[in-house]
Automatic annotation (TrEMBL):
It holds the Pfam family CN_hydrolase. Residues 246-261 have a biased composition (Basic residues). Residues 224-270 are annotated as: Disordered. This is CN hydrolase domain-containing protein.
Length: 270
């Protein structure tokens, strides 16, 4: 966990020094998404689960406070997904940290069926905050596929939305319905429906030392590194936005154009 927090702070510093006012991290960036659950058996997964829980963060713990201090020191807004440990439960949580270091946390209300083998359900509290750059909101992963939740977020009149995806390390390029194509389309649709800029960060997962293949098809690799799927999307555009190269690590700094507030009252980042 300490290495992950250190990496997070380094990326915050790098983004701020590159001129960014907001940095967005993927879903469960700390301590990382539990990819083993896609390839799991009960006995095999128990060891990973115990280690995962021990490396999860408390919402009021020193790790998140260290990240908040980095945000305040650099004067940058931070959105970060993390596994939140609370008693005997762990939640898929998102934190928005402002330039003063104030932390606001919300838990994913409906983890997917597979995610529920690790995570508990939250309370669906919306995470939207006013900032000097506009109203910033966050949803994690498959929450973007829930129409009722999207409608609630639309009422919040976001100007910048962070669509925090965990990554696409398993079945990457296999054309599965849960792959990057569907999720990128969900991010694009969100930008158009909500007239908001959308930042869609995706994790790049190192797979050195792993060799996971399909026993039925030995030439087929099940675990890949993901990446090349992060997007920044402008409202009311059908394009998928710019994406960093596959396997590229580090922040991709974008500078959106300035727009006045729209006649409908849905603003644009200032």
């Amino acid at each position: 966990m300490s290495a992950g927090v250190e990496q997070t702070i380094e990326l915050i510093d790098e983004a701020a020094e590159g001129g960014a006012h907001l940095i967005a991290f993927p879903e469960t960036f700390l301590p990382g998404f539990p990819w083993w659950m896609w390839l799991n058996s009960v006995d095999w997964g128990e060891e990973f689960l115990a280690r995962y829980l021990s490396n999860s963060l408390a919402a009021d713990g020193p790790e998140l406070r260290a990240i908040a201090y980095a945000a305040r020191r650099k004067g940058i807004h931070v959105s970060i997904g993390f596994a939140e440990r609370s008693g005997r439960e762990v939640f898929m949580s998102q934190a928005l940290i402002d330039v003063s270091g104030e932390i606001t946390v919300a838990r994913k209300g409906e983890p997917t069926g597979l995610e529920r083998t690790v995570f508990s359900a939250g309370d669906d509290r919306l995470l939207v905050r006013d900032t000097e750059h506009g109203r910033i909101g966050v949803l994690g992963g498959a929450d973007h596929l829930r129409p009722a939740l999207r409608a609630r977020m639309q009422e919040e009149r976001e100007q910048i939305h962070i669509a925090a995806w965990s990554g696409f390390t398993v079945y990457y390029g296999e054309g599965k319905e849960w792959g990057p194509e569907l999720n990128t389309a969900a991010s694009v649709r969100y930008a158009m429906d909500n007239s908001a800029y959308v930042i869609a960060p995706v994790a790049v997962v190192p797979v050195a030392g792993w060799e996971v293949v399909d026993a039925r098809l030995p030439d087929r690799r099940l675990l890949r590194g993901g990446g090349g799927v992060s997007r920044d999307l402008r409202p009311r555009r059908s394009g998928a936005g710019a994406a960093p190269g596959r396997g590229r690590r580090g922040p991709a700094v974008r500078r959106p154009r300035h727009h006045p507030r729209g006649a409908s009252g849905t603003g644009r980042p200032r």
